[in-house]
Fold this sequence. Notes:
It is a multi-pass membrane protein. By secondary structure, the chain is an alpha/beta fold.
Amino acid sequence: MTTVHTPPRPPTAIRPEVVARTGLYALLAANAAVVAVLFAQAGFASNALIVLGRLAGLYGALLMAFQLLLVARLPWLDRRIGMDRLTLWHRWTGFTLLWTLLAHAVFITLGYADSSGLDPVDQLVDLAETVEGVLRAVVALALILVVGTVSARFARRRLAYETWHFVHLYTYLAVVLAFTHQVAVGTTFVASPAATAYWWTLWSVALGSVLLGRLVLPLWRNLRHRLRVSAVVPENDDVVSVHITGRDLHRLPARAGQFFLWRFLTRDRWWQANPFSLSAAPDGRTLRLTVKAAGDGSAALRHLRPGTRVFAEGPYGAFTTLRRTRPDTVLVAGGVGVTPIRALLEELSGHAVVIHRVATERDAVLHDELRELAQAKGAELYLVTGPATPDRLAPAELARLVPDIADRDVYLCGPPGMTAAVRRSLRELGVPKPQIHFERFSLAG
């Protein structure tokens, strides 16, 4: 029997993601202004190149701290903006940081070379050998260059996630080296008690956020809830549902549409984390994920044994009813992307239309549950089958299935190609952007 959840709709006067996004922009702008004031109060060097280099270095330090905040996985930000968008902002901020630090190194080197008469290479070597902290800064810049290279789109597509992630961890070493460089030689850092207090506070908040969101909170939640596999249920030859129990799950702040990073603590898979969505709304007693075999890790879930310990990081994601702007909804799922859609339908209030796009009826996992749930909720359910051609969910087809689609929220989850095609169709149908909700369930953007 499917449990129907119909919580009251949240207030929608100001969308939560707008509040969070505006808050981040305001925080960055305020800190940029503070950095400029502290820089001016410290006084200027006689060489314009050195002045520019120092200013670029300070803003590089600010961007580095902001980078850490974006990937700290703080629940307040993640639930409102989503890990996918935060990761995307982190990526583009990273490229800005790279160019800012390069400008810092180039301007400082050229400025001192102009004063000493040395050529730039000899000047850089001299600074590294004679000035405390400069060699650490050179190493930090080299590490950031490596991370930036492997994060470029052409390289990222050729690397396994585990390889990319391992290389990316060196960013934390670069942060530590850059901070010690700033402490050692940063004139603005020691120019006044206010400047020193500001920079220590900035770095403490940034590093503390990472420590809290990525280590302390996951450890505390897993110690508290002690998750274990309770059942493994094959849905078809390629798809399996894993049921998980634990202690005090009613205190776990998970919502329909969210996902966790799951580690199943078996001998051969304990080190591997995978992002899988909840396929049923949390009921305070159990959690369920439904996964299609797409690699060794997901295929191995079929062989999990009840009682297996689970380490879960999360819940993550903003693909929830918190984003609603309209009383009625359309839920569009492609293939196994139906898992968060099925969970959302369980929690939604108001009239809903569910469109499930699959190649064949055999691929329609959880369809019996969807049909039962749609009947209980008074929702309409459409199963769209056939080859993966754009016209299956083209504007005319969507308008036929949902004539008032422009007046509804649209939640969309499926393969990237289908998601992009449906978003184009929704734009052609005049669905406002704030009413279109989708999320990329990935770790690296």
